[in-house]
User: Fold this.
Amino acid sequence: GEPIKIVEVLEMLADDPGCTLVEPIGARKSELKKLYEGELMQGGGHIAGWAVEDPAMLAQIDAALAALGSQEAFDAKYPQARGAKPLTLAVGDGNHSLACWEELKATLTPEERESHPARWCLAEVCNVHSPAIEIEPIHRVLFNVDCGAVLLALIAWSDSHAAGICFGDAKQQSFTLAGPHVANVLSFEHPVAPLTVGTIDAFIEYFMARHIEARVDYVHDEPAVRALCRQGGVAFLMPPFEKSDLFKGIVMGGVLPRKTFSMGHAEEKRYYMECRNILGEE
Assistant:
């Protein structure tokens, strides 16, 4: 028969510096029914999972979500966007897996769509401020280019877009432009995007359109970026990614630029401990 289809976990992030949503439930995990526990392969450490079934705890989660998504809380966190529609949870990863439902929905009757298992997704809600979540920038490296030519093009682009680029990190968005023999800290006084990575990506798109020989890659690890520079690459090293910037970037700019940040390292990303059958078959 047709293979059973499962859906990847949809990772949802909450901007909850007060730790009102996840942490109070975690503090009471000794009261919960344990579903699984064991060691992970490849240096991943130890994992355990508990079921939250108590109606009072579920009501507590609902109340915390309602408070985080209130207009008052949103306006206090993001005064620049006061009055806009509140953002309660942001999608961190797994949104592409929802395409399974979009594809299947076209084959179902309106009645079947109301109750089909694929209509619901498996979601993981995390507090972006948890110390367990490490958010690191993803750097940009250009190849087949000259560092001086990139700098001159960057200055010209900045002038044409009134971005106000200057040497030093005294302005709003700072970054390091590094080549085989030199590295300079630069910053924008009037950036064209809410986050540094968005402003840099706007320049790279401009540059790549005018230099067909150029190639761009996205590199997580800074020592790896430095090594590529020694081999001739020209890098835009992004500043540390502040957790609050994640939601700020979404609120002020919509969808974040591709490969804006990385959450965790490889050892923390290779496990899928929960899944659900989305066709309702055994």
Observations:
- The longest helix spans residues 196-210.
- DSSP finds nine helices and 13 strands in the chain.
- The first strand starts at residue 10 and ends at 14.
